[in-house]
Design goal:
Elements: E1 2-11, E2 22-37, E3 42-46, E4 51-54, H1 62-74, E5 81-87, H2 97-112, H3 119-133, H4 140-147, E6 150-154, E7 163-167, E8 173-179, H5 186-199, H6 201-224, H7 227-244, H8 249-260, E9 265-269, E10 276-281, H9 284-296, E11 300-306
Parallel strand pairs: 3-5
Antiparallel strand pairs: 1-2, 2-5, 2-6, 3-4, 6-7, 8-10, 8-11, 9-10
Helix pairs in contact: 1-3, 2-3, 2-4, 3-4, 5-6, 6-7
The structure holds (3R)-3-hydroxy-3-methyl-5-(phosphonooxy)pentanoic acid.
């Protein structure tokens, strides 16, 4: 059995698609894949999405397309096996569930068939298969899911190697994830941002400039373990995402609730327009308080750390 971890984008979602820097961290939520023998063909039972497929039956389901890419990359099309998928990551919620799914499958096939795939290759497969979920992925999700830890990421817009740097923090940050439980479509959100950018190029140029500066400042403060400053920068990043148009009333309510409970900062994470946000807490007690406040408002909550 192999796991693929979810992620939180701390800074720079959406902006990373355009080559600006992003900072993301792996989290304890995961997708799990286990392989069993099968008499004939390849079947996949995904308990997270409740999808059960016999691969190669010609449907255009995203799970089928994902499997086609992974099988082609690993040259395992002719094998017989059954994959059972489960886990605890909310799906289509901004926590990188699609990248986690692909990584867990690729790692399980690697283990079972002794493919000796490097992390670099797993990451490449995950990036290719991420295109099934949205047509222009930046690569940040698959990178974090494959390599783990806290990652600085810059997409190479000319098709060359992306910039990836693993950051070390003095102490981990305590966060609470709030889940609107509204499923979002990452591809649609990315398309929406592109359309807005085309309509208002001046406004976006300004926002992009601020986003870049913010990410560089955040990198410094994260490494120094300066929670108070990181919190302020998270709030600023949320302000930019709101201007871009990917926040929502539920996400705003979650951010306000967290800040009202004393959080150092709060912002949406991932594509937005539903999905999840997270708040940075001062201590473990406050973490629990924020989680309780989220639940009181009818939202989901999950307590975790980043940068461990
Ligand atoms: O919502 P998620 O987990 O798919 O995150 C998407 C992050 C974006 O920056 C919006 C897109 C991308 O490919 O980086």
């Amino acid at each position: 059995m192999q796991l693929g971890y979810g992620k939180l984008i701390l800074f720079g979602e959406h902006f990373v698609v355009y080559g600006l820097p992003g900072i993301a961290s792996a989290i304890g939520l995961y997708t799990r894949c286990r392989l069993y023998p099968n008499e004939k063909g390849i079947t996949v039972n995904d308990r997270l999405t409740n999808k059960h497929i016999l691969v190669g039956k010609g449907n255009s389901d995203i799970l089928e397309q994902t499997m086609q890419i992974i099988l082609k990359e690993t040259a395992l099309e002719k094998k017989n096996f059954r994959l059972e998928i489960d886990g605890n990551i909310p799906i289509f919620g901004g926590l990188g569930s699609s990248a986690a799914l692909i990584v867990s499958i690729a790692r399980e096939l690697n283990r079972e068939f002794l493919l000796n795939l490097s992390d670099k290759k797993i990451n490449e497969i995950a990036f290719k298969a991420e295109h099934v979920f949205h047509s222009a992925p930046s690569g940040i999700d698959n990178t974090v899911s494959t390599f783990g830890g806290l990652v600085w990421f810059e997409k190479n817009l000319h098709g060359g190697k992306n910039k990836m740097e693993q950051l070390k923090m003095k102490k981990p940050l305590l966060v609470v994830i709030g889940n609107t439980r509204i499923i979002h479509d990452t591809g649609e959100a990315v398309k929406f941002v592109r359309a807005q950018k085309e309509k208002q190029p001046k406004k976006f140029e300004q926002i992009f400039g601020q986003a870049k500066e913010l990410a560089h400042e955040a990198k410094k403060e994260l490494i120094a373990g300066n929670g108070k400053k990181v919190g302020e920068l998270l709030n600023k990043n949320q302000g930019l995402l709101k201007q871009v148009g990917v926040s929502s009333k539920e996400l705003e309510l979650l951010c306000e609730t967290a800040l009202g409970a004393g959080a150092l900062g709060a912002k949406l994470t991932g594509a937005g327009m539903g999905g999840c946000m997270f708040a940075l807490a001062k201590n473990a007690e406050q973490q629990k308080k924020i989680a309780r406040e989220f639940e009181k408002e009818g939202f989901g909550s999950y307590i975790t750390k980043v940068g461990v």
